[in-house]
Every structure is written in structure tokens, then in C-alpha cells.
Write a structure and sequence with these properties.
two-stranded antiparallel sheet; mainly alpha
């Protein structure tokens, strides 16, 4: 019986294993080879092994660390802002959405627009020469902040990212909030609990797994941001808005340093895997406790 079960298990998992080997394993192996090779577009089919020189070039590149710091700040700021605003909206709008559930559809509209289109749209709206917002601010107040300069670009990008992806966090929190049994709230009310006590001691703890998942997803998405940043500001003046994804893109396509770009992407993968492993270990320890 055990042999039959193991045989069936092998048959059922074979398609997934083949898929992972073909579409993930092979490209990953090629990337590892390229990351330790001297390779350009002209020598793409015949790379020359060069050891860890590409990794050393990346780790000693100031632009890499500048891009890493930008991506880290951007991921943390946008993830926190999106989840805090999304959590507030999910709780505050719960009574309204319970009566008029159709209002959920227009709240999701920002998710329907591609990030690249969002970047282009705000680039036109905020352009210091032709943008309507700077024009009216200057017309009404006599001056207008430079939304896309070195000093303000980071916060402008963070606000735009937050406006687009807060509905995603809101949707997760709304579903988690609706999944809390009403009997639990009614029992707490009978015991004399206030609305704040119910929120603090019942609703938020029950929503905690969803909050952690949303924070993780939004941080990873913000950390690897490319589309709207590239279309809105690119790498910015002096690399002020260069994310790690843009750093890899420019090293690959503009500099033609394929080995360096792949080495940077491998380091990015290792960092992401370390974060994921740490979160899984933390979750496992909490379950055991």
C-alpha cells in the first residue's frame, strides 16, 4: 500500500517538477554561470569564466548600495503606508460596504491601471513646465514645489505607489474583517466591551496573519519596484531614484555588462530569500509558542 501511495505521489508531482526544472531551474543555472563569467551580448553563447569578479564589482559599486538603500526605504515606507491606510479604510467603511457592496468595485479601480501608465500619467500631471498641478499652484500661491527633483522625487513616488496599491491591502483587510464571526463581537458586547476594546483585543489579533502577509507582499513589491519609477523619473538626478531593478536594467541594457547585472540579480534573489526564510522561521516559532 505504501509503495502504491509513493508511486502515485511521484506521478502526481512529476508535471510540477518538470515545469520547475524547465522554467525555473534551467534559467537559474544559466544565471549562476553568467554571474561568474565575463559575458557581453557578443559572447552570450560562449561566456568566459572569471570567478567572483562580477560580485566584487557589484559590491564595490556605490550605485548598487545607493539603489539598495532607495529600494529598502521605498519598500518599507510604501508597505507601511498602504497597510495602515488600507486597514483604516477596511474598518471604517465596513458598515457602509455591508449595506452597499457594489461600492467595492470603484475602490478597486486603481488596481486596473498598469503601473507604467500610472507613471506616465503622473509625469504629465506633475511636470514643472506643462503639468496642471504645478501651474495652478504657481497661479494661486505664486510658487510650486518641484515634485520630481532630487529632494522631492522619493516622496512623490511613495505617494503615487501608495495611491495605486492601497486598494490591494484594503481588499485583503476587508475580506479578513468580514470573515470574523459576528458571534464573537456580540459576545464581547454582552460582556461590556467597548468598540475600541473589541478592535484591539479581538478583531486586530484575528486579522494579524492577513496584516503580516499584506505587509510582506507590499514590501517585496515595493522593494523590486521598476515600472512607475522608470517611467516617471528613471534613475533620477545622480541616481537619486534608482531602485535595484533599475540598476540591473541599466547594467544589462545600457552598459552591456551582463555578468554584472546577473550578479546583482542573484544578490537580490538571495536577499529576498533570506527575508522570506526569516519570516517563515518567525511564523513557525510563533506557532510553536
Amino acid at each position: 500500500m505504501d509503495r502504491i501511495r509513493s508511486h502515485d505521489w511521484a506521478i502526481l508531482t512529476a508535471p510540477m517538477v518538470v515545469f520547475l526544472l524547465l522554467f525555473l531551474g534551467f534559467p537559474a543555472l544559466v544565471n549562476v554561470v553568467y554571474s561568474v563569467s565575463e559575458v557581453r551580448f557578443e559572447t552570450l553563447r560562449s561566456p568566459t569564466l572569471s570567478g567572483l569578479g562580477n560580485y566584487l564589482a557589484v559590491l564595490t559599486d556605490d550605485d548598487f548600495w545607493r539603489a539598495s538603500w532607495f529600494s529598502l526605504r521605498f519598500g518599507v515606507v510604501t508597505a507601511l503606508a498602504e497597510c495602515l491606510i488600507g486597514l483604516f479604510l477596511a474598518i471604517f467603511l465596513a458598515p457602509l460596504l455591508a449595506k452597499r457592496s457594489w461600492l467595492l468595485a470603484p475602490l478597486m479601480l486603481p488596481l486596473m491601471v498598469a503601473p507604467a501608465m500610472i507613471g506616465l500619467m503622473y509625469r504629465l500631471v506633475l511636470h514643472e513646465f506643462v503639468g496642471p498641478i504645478p501651474f495652478y499652484l504657481y497661479d494661486w500661491f505664486g510658487s510650486s514645489p518641484a515634485f520630481l527633483d532630487v529632494g522631492g522625487a522619493f516622496w512623490t513616488l511613495s505617494v503615487i505607489e501608495t495611491l495605486q496599491w492601497t486598494p490591494f491591502a484594503f481588499l485583503l483587510f476587508h475580506m479578513a474583517y468580514q470573515a470574523i464571526p459576528q458571534d464573537v463581537r456580540d459576545a464581547a458586547l454582552i460582556d461590556g466591551a467597548t468598540s475600541w476594546q473589541i478592535l484591539k483585543r479581538i478583531e486586530l489579533p484575528l486579522m494579524a496573519p492577513t496584516i503580516v502577509v499584506a505587509l510582506f507582499i507590499r514590501f517585496i513589491d515595493g522593494f523590486r519596484v521598476f515600472d512607475n519609477v522608470y517611467t516617471l523619473t528613471g534613475s533620477g538626478a545622480g541616481g537619486s531614484t534608482m531602485s535595484l531593478s533599475i540598476y540591473i536594467y541599466e547594467a544589462f541594457f545600457k552598459q552591456g555588462a551582463i555578468g554584472k547585472a546577473v550578479a546583482a540579480s542573484v544578490l537580490l534573489f538571495i536577499a529576498s530569500f533570506a527575508v522570506l526564510w526569516g519570516l517563515n522561521a518567525l511564523a513557525a516559532s510563533r506557532r510553536k509558542a
